[in-house]
Amino acid sequence: MKSEKHALKKWLVAGSTLLIMSAVQAADDNVVNVYNWSDYIDDEILTEFEAETGIKVVYDVFDSNDILETKLLAGSSGYDVVVPSAGFLARQIQAGVFQKLDMSKLDNYGNMWNVVNDQVARFGPLNDYSVNYMWGTTGIGYVEEQINERMPDAPVDSLALVFDPEITSKFADCGIFMLDAADELIPAALAYLGEDPNTKDKDVIAKAEAVLMGVRPYIQKFHSSEYINALSNGDICIAVGWSGDIFQARDRADEADNGVTIGYGVPKEGALMWFDQMAIPKDAPHADNAHTFINYMMRAEVIAKATNYVWYANGNKASQPMLDEELLGDTSVYPTEEMMTDMYIVTPYDPKTQRVVTRLWTRVKSGQ
Amino acid sequence: MSNKGVLITGGQSEMGPLAAAQMRLASFAPYRWFVAAIIWIADKLGLRGRSLVIAMPYLWLLVFFLLPFAIVFKLSFSEIAIAIPPYTPIVSWVDGIYLRLQLSFESYQLLFEDSLYIKAYLNSIKIATVSTLLTLLIGYPMAYGMVRAPKQWRTTLLMLVILPFWTSFLIRVYAWIGILKTKGLLNLLLMNLGIISEPLTILNTNVAVYIGIVYSYLPFMILPLYANLEKLDGSLLEAAADLGCGPFKAFWTITIPLSTAGIVAGCFLVFIPAVGEFVIPDLLGGSDTLMIGKTLWVEFFNNRDWPLASAVAVLLLLILIVPIVLFQKFQERANAQSA
Is residue A240 domain-shared with residue A354, that is, in the same domain? Predict the structure, then answer.
């Protein structure tokens, strides 16, 4: 018994030494921990960054702002660079999550596009804390064959396609997905009603419930990343989703040559414009490497490569000559400034209103 | 002891499910560190031998169950805030001299006001009950067939039941997406066979959740049943046959009653985890599949409402305690009977 206890003690000592060693090693490692959206980068960029700087990229992905915020508000997330959307970022800055960027380490900042920076500034002092990665609109992706078969004159450029029960019900059998994002679908429902999508008035917000509930029986799933595959395989025929994701689905379907043609409609009632921003948490373990990473991503040729791959517009003016011509000319990717005035943004809700919004959304999702 | 549900059979057939779980725990490195630390502390405190052995499970319970539960319980009385962490403290200093305790019951109020949560609880219990019964209906004949199979086959059959555990649970559930989806394997098969002309919508419905749970938890039903049926005294059935009892009646009046312990163990092993199941309804269920595990996840991760998520967890635990206590009582009774 005595000797066994002794052996256990040795075991314990050895174990804890190992633990401490690995912790020290992790701190010494030349890494940058990046937490970004899924399907949102050309992997080659990361490889090239590693080769050039010797900094290893630990890349992790999420598919909703909510998940990211949960991790950030729990504290000590361990991430060095995260990419929240502007509305969420504004609130997280208030909560004290982020550090101001050290502009002296970002010598590529001059490449950024003032049009996007001005839009981002509408959310608050975001430009002190973050740099735009990509931006886009939330719209409707659809499978042309399935739509034509059921309703050749379907209003694919209108929210009526997904919010008018009479029209939406025609497509229930081929599958409709919606983003699982309260802060995008509720404003969209309000835009459909002609209300101010960015309203903070609880009574107005409540009006969205009837719209969403009216089409709820025809929605198969609320999910923010599955729709890329589901659309490109033709498993579903309509998805309310993010512009670039739907273009990725279109490309995957083209490559597979499976008889699925995917279109993207920017809602004429007004489309939500969102901005995904690269930022550095206050407790980032490798803040220097994080600056190096963000600075690298601001290089015109790097971000152009990312945009050519993910088919989202970026906030980098200098990169525009290097983009695929087809992409820059496509107003559903790069809307004209005139079109942008018709689009809306959604600024953050205060905690009490947020609870009203999430509760409404939970009821809609569960169909209760 | 002989009638008790047994998880692992063979040479250690006298081992109960708890003992088997403890065996598995003992090979788990953090557990061994924990044990080593406890032994060290106990040594310093002058605790030796018997008292130490008795104290161990209680310490385990204290550190890994009661303490976390106390934290969750405390959290459920906070309010949400935009801060790190995202809730208000319940204890604070006022003017540097008054200690203020502020308990918010808003989360519990919401639980009862918003019918969503009650529905989610009831629906979880319904889904778990139906799945448990289905698992029993499928698992019992399988366990019975395994026991009746020639002796040299039994180990292989047992292995086949356990084999799926070699693949990650998540991947096995994911595989069902490929099978059940509209253009999936099942629909292709049925359509090619001419049984159906239009594909069935199974994925993202409750049916898919039932399939997922029954599939995933079947081994937990089969193993205790197998262990129990294997020890059934065959001579009882022979005696029944000698006395003119048909095989069907003998099964109902002898085999089933004697295997009650196995049935109960299997049912609890399926029911309890199924109530709180999150992965299966999330991957296979539709957005209208209400289960409390998923509701809890949504509150915590999507709504960032930690206090409400904690209140849901506290109630879930209260609901689960009832069947667990019942199970414990049943085991005690079975032990007393066989002693």
Answer: yes
SS3 A12: helix
Q: What are residue A120's phi and psi, to 5 degrees?
A: -60, -35
Task: Name the DSSP class of B138.
Answer: H
Q: Report pLDDT digits (tens) over A120-175.
A: 999 999 999 999 999 999 999 999 999 999 999 999 999 999 999 999 999 999 99
pLDDT the model gives residue B6:
39
Domain that holds residue A293: 31-136+277-337
Condensed to tens digits (0 to 9), the pLDDT of residues A62-113 reads 988 988 999 999 888 999 999 999 999 999 999 999 999 999 999 999 999 9
β-pairing verdict for A238-242 and A130-143: antiparallel
Number of structural domains chain A divides into? 2
A24 pLDDT band (50/70/90 cuts)? Answer: very low
State ipTM: 0.71
Q: Are residues A174 and A317 in the same domain?
A: no
Give the number of other Cβ atoms within 10 Å of residue A329's Cβ. Answer: 10
Pick the closest to residue A247 from A267, A265, A262 (CA basis): A262
Of A70, A175, A366, the CB nearest to B304: A70
Token reading at B212:
């997922």
Is residue A126 located within the same domain as residue A179? no
The CA-atom distances, in angstroms, between B57 and each of A2, B22, B322 are 21, 10, 21
Residues A179 and A328 in one domain: no
CA nearest to A92 within chain B: B82
* DSSP 8-state code for residue B287: T
Q: State CA A158 to chain mean position distance.
A: 22
> Does the pLDDT of residue B339 top 70, yes or no?
no
Cβ atoms B165, B223 nearer than 8 A: no
Is residue B268 within 8 Å of residue B250, measured between CB atoms? Answer: no
Going from the C-alpha of A230 to that of each of A100, A150, A255, A257, B280, the distances in angstroms are: 39, 19, 15, 15, 19
Q: What is the DSSP letter of B285?
A: S
Mind telling me how many Å the CA of A132 is from chain B's nearest CA?
Answer: 23
Instruction: Check whether residue A269 and residue A194 sit in a common domain.
Output: yes
Answer whether 0.80 is exceeded by the pTM: no
> Which residue in this structure is represented by tokens 């208030």?
A94
| Nearest CB to A70; choose among B35, B204, B300 | B300
Task: Flag whether A304 is in a domain.
Answer: yes
Residue found under tokens 């005294």: B233
Q: Using the beta-carbon criterion (under 8 Å), do A75 and B84 form an inter-chain contact? A: yes
Instruction: Please give the CATH architecture assigned to the domain spanning B107-338.
Output: Orthogonal Bundle (1.10)
B48 close contact with A: CB closer than 8 A: no
What CATH number does residue A320 fall under? Answer: 3.40.190.10
Nearby residues of B207 by Cβ (< 8 Å), 6 or more positions away: none
pLDDT at B24: 64
Contacts of A16 in chain B (CB under 8 A): 33
DSSP H stretches of helix in chain A: 2-28, 43-53, 65-74, 86-94, 114-121, 144-150, 160-163, 165-168, 182-193, 202-215, 226-232, 243-256, 287-297, 300-310, 325-328, 337-342, 351-366
DSSP state of B4: S
Contact criterion met (CB < 8 Å) for A15 and B114:
no
Determine contact, residues A238/A171, Cβ cutoff 8 Å.
yes
Give the nearest chain A residue to B286 (CA atoms): A221
Residues A149 and A103 in one domain: no
Please calculate the CA angle B21-B22-B26 and round it to the nearest 5 degrees.
Answer: 120
- Whole-angstrom Cα distance, residue A28 to residue A60? 20
Q: How many helices (H) and strands (E) does chain B have?
A: 17, 2
Is the pLDDT at A18 greater than 50? The verdict is no
Say how far apart CA B102 and CA B90 lie, in whole Å.
5
Does A303 map to a domain? yes
